[in-house]
Structure formats: C-alpha cells, structure tokens
Amino acid sequence: MKRWTVLLGRGGTTVLAIGLALFLVSLIPSVPTGSYLGNGYTNGKTWQTLDGDTVLIPQQTLHIAVTTNGTLNVYVLEVSSRTIYEWITARADSEHYSGLIDFFNVTYFDEFLGSNPGLIVWQAEIHDGTIDYEYVPTKIVNVTLTVSNHSPDVVSADYAWSLSRSVAPASKVRILSEFAIPIGVVFTLPWLSNLLRARKRRKG
C-alpha cells in the first residue's frame, strides 16, 4: 500500500474523529444561568438602559424580548452604560454646559451612537408589539441593552432577558464539525479502498 495513502488515511481518521467529537459537543444543551423580567415607562425624547453592565463570554447566549404599546428603538451595545454616561458628560463639557446634565436626553444618546457605530451589535424598531433577539458574543465583552423613545409620548414596555451557557459556542463548533467530517471522509476513503483491495487479494 502506498505510503502517502496510509498517511492520508491516518490523518483522515483523526480529522473525522475530531469532527464527530465536535458535532457531539454541539449537541450538548445549554444551561440557563440567569434571567430577569421587568417593566416600566420611557418618557418622550429620552433613552434608558434595560441592563447596564453585563459581561458576556463566547460560551454564553443572551436572549431578550421587549413588548411595547408604542414605538421604541431597541439596541444591544457592546459597551458598558458607564462609558455612555462618561461620553455624554464629556460632550456636555465640550459645550461648557454649567447646569445639570440631562443624561437621558435622546439627542445625546443618538450622538453617542453616531460617533460609535461599531458598538451597535443589533438595533430594531418596535411598533406596538413584541420583538425577540438572541446574541452570542465573539469575545469577552460588556453588553448594555437600551431603548430610546423619539416621540413626545410616554411609552410603556415589558422586557425580559435571560442568559444561558454552553460548553462551547454551539454554532461555531457545528460549523467546524461540518468542515472536519467531510474532509476526514475524503482523506480516509483512498486508504480504506486500498485496504479492502489488499484483503481481497490475500483471500484470493
């Protein structure tokens, strides 16, 4: 049996075994690690955080749902709420504003987003209904959930978020297994074919 075929076969079986192991890992269900239910009102022309300083890792998944009786913009931001407040403070200082800073003025928040678009993981607008979203981070990161109300009316909202943790990011692990298994099969087939032919010759 040719040496290269044997080497490919051994390498192929290793890759195939790794791919199958990754696939099995991806099937392990995630474990709930926390949840929160809340409700409240967002005044006209303001914004607010629903969760200020959650630190997530790639093995975690954040599930959120927001229900409102009006129109709200919902954001998942890769930043802590403290960073937003510090940015607004610096913005007010640059204008030499001497009074109390209205941190929840939606104009300041929109300016923050305009200056830091890369921090927006997801955004959506709800019109008298419910919206759901699932977020899996790609690194260790601070995450803040926010809503903003650009209308002059007060809008009420019910919101829920929950965290779950898996052994590894299921989607990424499954993608790796989908690559590894076919590659392992392709590398292994020539070796298996030669092995079967060799056995037939010995029997003959």
Describe this structure as you would to a colleague.
There is one protein chain. The chain has 204 residues and is of the alpha+beta class. The chain is built from four helices and eight strands, in the order H-E-E-E-E-H-H-E-E-E-E-H. Helix 1 packs antiparallel against helix 4. The longest helix has 34 residues, at 170-203. It is elongated, with a radius of gyration of 26 Å.
**CATH fold-type name of the largest domain:** Jelly Rolls
What is the distance, rounded to the nearest whole angstrom, between the alpha carbons of the first and last residues?
Answer: 17 Å
Anisotropy-based shape: elongated
Count every helix, treating DSSP H or I runs of 4 or more residues as helices.
4
Element-level helix/strand string: HEEEEHHEEEEH
Total beta strands: 8
Strand fraction equals 35-45%
CATH class of the largest domain: Mainly Beta
- Overall tally of structural domains: 2
Produce the secondary structure layout:
Layout: H1 3-26, E1 31-42, E2 46-56, E3 60-68, E4 71-77, H2 81-94, H3 106-115, E5 120-127, E6 130-135, E7 141-149, E8 155-165, H4 170-203
Helix pairs in contact: 1-4
Could you give a short description of this structure?
With 204 residues, the protein is α+β, with helices and mostly antiparallel strands. It has helices at 3-26, 81-94, 106-115, 170-203; strands at residues 31-42, 46-56, 60-68, 71-77, 120-127, 130-135, 141-149, 155-165. The longest helix has 34 residues, at 170-203.
